[in-house]
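Model: You mentioned two targets. I'll fold them one after the other.
Researcher: Yes, keep them separate.
Model: Target one:
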Amino acid sequence: MSVTAAKLLFRQPCEFVMGGAELESLPPTRYPEIAFAGRSNVGKSSLVNALTGRSTLAHASNTPGRTQQINFFLLAEKLMLVDLPGHGYAKAPKSDVRRWTQLVKDYLSGRPNLKRVLFLIDARHGIKEADLGIMKVLDTSAVNYQIIFTKSDKTKPDELAKMTEATLAAIKRHPAAHPQIIATSSFTNDGIDRVRAELAAFA
């Protein structure tokens, strides 16, 4: 789909549907789904907001009691955007970490209409140890995932180029990884149109 057509799609109504803390409570698999995964504070909600042009869409579901749920947003009644709990929590009890991690793994390996996972990586730091476990689940489940750099405005162009090169080399060892990386910034909107065009193809 062209960038213009993708922009039009993402200008359509996008609404919070529900949040689920257990696999059995998630909505029916009626629409193609795009999931947003990554470490805590990597910018998943900011990217969802930037893509849809709504500054508080994902934040609206980020209220106490929902923060560690899988949150669903329906775009134009064509595409479900799925905001997953972040991994790599530093302050949460270990029992909560295990529960959230298992919820994410169950979703990633058992959702038949999941078309792609956008795996968000901070452009300044690259792939960390906490990311590798989720990437292994995606590889094992044969779920296509694409690395999306976030916060690219916070790194210099030469540093971003080196990080991109190193990450491309690293994902060659991961069979389910998409071979292209998109660098984005929710602050400057760099890369946002490219991501929209990628996702619109699934609508």
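Model: Target two:
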Amino acid sequence: MSIPATDEPPSVETPEPPPKAPPNRRRALIEWGVILLVALLAALLLRTFIIQPYFIPSGSMEPTLKVGDKVLVNKLSYDFHSIHRGDVIVFKKPADDFTPGIKDLIKRVIGLPGETISSKDGFVYINGVRLNEPWLPKVDRGVTVGIKPTLIPPGEYYVMGDNRTDSSDSRVIGPIPKSLIVGRAFIKVWPLDRIGTL
């Protein structure tokens, strides 16, 4: 007996792949919940202890900072190095400052602990030597007003706004204790066309 010839290859049965397990939606939701919680916690810790954004509410630091600008403040900066003249700092409003609606102020450090600060002919003097202030535009140099000779106590800093004719600063509220200093403003982040370091 002969087997008829065929052009078809012999069939081989292949096992069907096992069905895919349905996705575990509950597990996926839990994983995303944990990821979001960790991200939120990290952002909260970052804002509370390391870097915090601040909004500029007044023109006391013009032209360096304008109303509506946003800056980032490094809260750990002075844990690693001392406060320097020229630093732009954020500090808590002193108890004897009754300006309504403001909790924190931003100014520039001009005088350091133990120094005597004064003004003459519109310029700032530190220990009798005229202070070079490269952070001020040339047209605004020589407009400092009303600094009576002041010996800055230990642990305190004399701060001023860059807008010398319109700033309520240490000329009014006196030197600022280090305990009130929140941190150093180091960069402008808003508006985008004014991004830059301080």
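Researcher: Noted. Anything on target two?
Model: Helices lie at 25-50, 77-80, 170-173.
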